[in-house]
Amino acid sequence: MRLVLDTLEVPGDVARTPQGWEIRRSASVQEIGGTPATRLTRAAMAPGLPPLGSAHPGAPGARLDRIEVAGYDGDTDSARLSLVYRTLNAETTPDTRPGRGGVKVLAVEFWSQTQTERTTQDAAGREMITQYFGNWQDRDGETQPFLLAWETFEVDVYRPQFGVRIRHERASLPRELAPAYVGAVNSDWWSRFPPYTWLCTGFQSDNSTGVWVSVFEALYRPQGWRYTHTVTFDGRPIARAVRGNGIADYDVYPAKPFHVLGIKF
Predict the structure, then answer these.
(1) Calpha distance 253→188 (Å, rounded)
(2) What does residue 41 show for φ and ψ, rounded to 5 degrees?
(3) Is 193 exposed, middle or buried (0-12, 13-18, 19+ CB in 10 A)?
(4) Between 115 and 87, whose confidence is greater?
(5) Higher pLDDT, 14 or 37
(6) Residue 107: predicted pLDDT
(7) Beta strands in the chain (DSSP E)
(8) Are residues 148 and 252 in the same domain?
């Protein structure tokens, strides 16, 4: 499979509006292969394509919103792609007017609470290890201490939790958003917060008033939703452990670009 980006320059592919950029980059995928039922999806996932949510190389604030298959040629087993970039409430003012792609934020609510968490670290992040030293005399008659016993101390602490609820109107049925985002963390900077610090915990929608009104809920964790594990020996962390050898980082939640939702606070 071979990918060629920016194959065409067509007037109207780039638009700059009060809400930001709307840009279409063209690409072609050749020698797709696979079965007839999978060739279009294979083309849309061709190696080398920029990931969804990535920035446009020449337009600050424009992010890749979607990848469309614009055409397929069975004789050459090639497809034309359209990469759609938009500024979606990331660095410019959002489009609050109802309409295609329009999102209007109605209310933002913050909340906080405490949750019990068991930990072996103190407030400074140090492991709480209680040690007991015995004494022995060396050949010179000097008293020397030696570590006789140690134990890691565990305690239940109250951790503060902060969350946000964003009530907003959407121009179309957001049927794909709940299964895609609930249980996912932000892979990008969102509302001035770094990646992996917000976890989507809820997404509800209804159109009882004739307009789709959605409520997005997220939970904030300042240290991030990635977890780090350090190997212990006899109940104590290994002092010389480094990442890749004794220390490992784990992603337990999938990551999604939150800016494409078109909402922020």
Answers:
(1) 14
(2) -70, -35
(3) middle
(4) 115
(5) 14
(6) 94
(7) 2-5, 14-17, 20-30, 55-56, 59-73, 78-86, 103-119, 129-137, 143-152, 155-170, 185-186, 198-206, 212-220, 226-230, 232-233, 236-237, 242-243, 246-251, 255-256
(8) yes
> Is the same domain home to 118 and 72?
no
6 and 121 both lie in a single domain: no
In residues, how long is the chain? 265
* 46 alpha carbon, distance to own chain's centre: 22
Please give the tally of structural domains in the chain.
2
Q: What is the mean pLDDT of residues 23-39?
A: 83
Tens of pLDDT, residues 173-195: 777 888 899 999 999 889 888 88
Question: Cα(194)–Cα(197) distance, rounded to whole angstroms?
Answer: 6
Token code pair at residue 16? 């700059």
User: Residues 102, 95: contact at Cβ < 8 Å?
Assistant: yes
Domain extent for 26: 2-86
Beta carbons of 16 and 56 less than 8 angstroms apart: no
Handedness of CA 99, 52, 265, 60 (dihedral sign): negative
- Of the candidates 37, 71, 86, which is a domain's last residue? 86
Question: Quick one: pLDDT band at residue 89, thresholds 50, 70, 90?
Answer: very low
pLDDT above 50: residue 221: yes
CB 263 within 8 A of CB 90: no
- Cβ neighbours of residue 111 under 8 Å, at least 6 residues apart? 162, 163, 164, 165
Do 136 and 248 lie in a common domain? yes
Residues 6+ apart with CB under 8 A from 263: 89, 94, 103, 105, 166, 168, 216
- pTM, whole model, 2 decimals? 0.54
